[in-house]
Give the backbone structure.
Amino acid sequence: MTQPKVAVIYYSATGHGTTMAQRVTAAAESAGAEVRLRHIAETQDPASFAHNPAWTANYEATKDLPAATGEDIVWADAVIFGSPTRFGSPTAQFRAFIDSLGGLWAEGKLADKVYAAFTSSQTLHGGQESTLLNLYVSLMHFGGIIVPPGYTDQVKFADGNPYGVGLVANRDNIAEFDEATNDALDHLARRVVGVAARLAA
Ligand SMILES: Cc1cc2nc3c(=O)[nH]c(=O)nc-3n(C[C@H](O)[C@H](O)[C@H](O)COP(=O)(O)O)c2cc1C
């Protein structure tokens, strides 16, 4: 089997997205992929969130790690994106990264890749689905092959999100998630790697 290359590209303010991205990365590697884990760099002045310990801690833990660039997408056969939900949509930081990709889009370098996504929101009905749908609209403009999880495995009946994976983020669960979320993240990674491998073959 060709070893698929997967880029996990995410933004996280207070750390839930970082843990989700790490889980997806480990699962994709277990499924046989070569993985690049890349955070989307913070665009806000750290002084503006100095009052928020979780945001500051996540910023300090990730700021010196390699940040995502468009080249990571060009390199990859498949991309798993992650963004928190803000007012029912991806964050401005995530959008700024997507909006930086115009040159690669014009060259057709974002097309014909497998894409999927995860998000988190503070509340259960706080807009996870609209965030994922919003994010997928841009992937249609890329000419991407969107691979949602659907209900392709029993685990999807536990987390209940056929559009991607969504976590209800409550600050007690920054480092450790419930079993349904972990299973859904693992399944998303396996599915993306499997489809990318079949496309490569
Ligand atoms: C400006 C702003 C808008 C938000 N909008 C929503 C929202 O529409 N629905 C919701 O449930 N949570 C909302 N939240 C909460 C975030 O979704 C939550 O903090 C995030 O999922 C945590 O992810 P992170 O730890 O990776 O940053 C909002 C948070 C901020 C700061």
Q: What stands out?
A: The chain has a mean pLDDT of 97. The CA atoms of residues 151 and 157 lie 7 Å apart. DSSP finds eight helices and seven strands in the chain.
